[in-house]
UniProtKB/TrEMBL annotation:
Entry-linked Pfam families: adh_short (PF00106)
Region entry Disordered, spans: 317-337
PANTHER family: DEHYDROGENASE/REDUCTASE SDR FAMILY MEMBER 12, DEHYDROGENASE_REDUCTASE SDR FAMILY MEMBER 12-LIKE
Protein name: Dehydrogenase/reductase SDR family member 12-like
């Protein structure tokens, strides 16, 4: 059954997720949607020094936005910043060096950012990783989960109070269509049981991001939350993490700009703000977060368990002694259903 389901998903991907899929979908785009100026609005983009994150940061800078690039590698970040400033003519581009897999560091960064800056209009959770061998970070969290899920949770949850104070606040998370073949697994967040398959762990993390987005949207009605699939794009991450897939797809892969298009649309356009919060997007359209007749839906109890586990893990990180950081992650913890 799973082989059949994965085959259906792949055939759907060939039709929709490739360069041809983008070209077909883009015929329906409204060009004026991105005819905007965002001077005075601030945007945080994680993983902004390459791939989709860099393309999104570039597009935002060209529209006049203040860009906060959150990157792991200082040299690559500085090279990307020079290129973005040069091509956009916008000098309001700032670098913050943070490894999203280091959970405690992510929290410290978010707390410091919240104190230093008066507003943040848009958060783009783009950074991700696909590690094929099970590794853990300093907090003992599995590396993929730490980066793709826990890093996104801690960063977003810590910045929600700042976003709430900001006009037309939005949170966009870059997920993947691979999540469509995954049901939320609440009893093994750290991938400790059975065979470790990095691709499936990554897809599970991407399902977790969709669930997080849906729950955040319910709990924070004044912020617009969305999660999206960029399609299959020719990024450094894809060529490194999935070399066989990258080679097989070749010219059929989207450009990074095509992959970033919906991120940029969700971040900048007025049309995006009019859509219902909490949805999964592909090529500027909300699409179902489950395949037809799928077994991937979760019960409210499973979702509650997942959110409670994240909250417990976050509290453990915050309890690390640091005299500078006494503020809790969020003033009140909403009940997720």
């Amino acid at each position: 059954m799973s082989v059949y389901r994965n085959a259906i998903w792949f055939l759907n991907g060939i039709h929709h997720y490739t360069r041809k899929g983008y070209e077909a979908a883009s015929k329906e785009f409204e060009p004026q949607d991105l005819d905007v100026s965002v001077v005075g609005r601030s945007f945080m983009v994680t993983g902004a020094n390459s791939g989709i994150g860099r393309a999104a940061a570039m597009a935002i800078a060209k529209k006049g936005g203040t860009v906060h690039m959150v990157c792991r590698n200082k040299d690559k970040a500085e090279e990307a910043r020079v290129d973005i400033v040069d091509k956009s003519g916008n000098t309001e581009v700032y670098i913050h060096i943070v490894d999203m897999s280091e959970t405690c560091k992510v929290w410290e960064f978010a707390e410091a950012f919240k104190k230093q800056y008066p507003s943040l209009n848009v958060l783009i959770n783009n950074a991700g990783c696909m590690v094929h061998k099970r590794e853990v970070n300093a907090e003992g969290l599995e590396k993929n989960f730490a980066t793709n899920t826990m890093g996104v949770y801690i960063l977003t949850q810590t910045l929600i109070p700042l976003l709430q104070k900001s006009r037309d606040a939005r949170v966009i998370t870059v997920s993947s269509g691979g999540m469509l073949v995954q049901k939320l697994r609440v009893n093994d967040l750290q991938s400790e049981k059975g065979y470790f398959d990095g691709v499936m762990v990554y897809a599970q993390n991407k399902r977790q991001q969709v669930v997080l987005t849906q729950q955040w949207a319910k709990a924070n009605p004044i912020i617009h939350f969305s999660v999206m699939h960029p399609g299959w794009a020719d990024t450094p991450a894809v060529s490194t993490s999935m070399p066989q897939f990258h080679q097989m797809m070749g010219e059929r892969l989207r450009s990074v700009e095509q992959g970033a298009d919906t991120v940029v649309w969700l971040a900048l356009s007025r049309a995006a703000a009019r859509t219902r919060s909490g949805q999964f997007f592909q090529d500027r359209q909300p699409v179902p977060a489950h395949l037809p007749l799928a077994w991937t839906h979760s019960s409210s109890q499973e979702i509650q368990s997942f959110m409670s586990q994240l909250e417990t893990l976050a509290e453990a990180v915050q309890s690390q002694p640091d005299p500078e950081l006494k503020e809790p992650l969020s003033p009140s913890t909403p009940q997720f259903v």
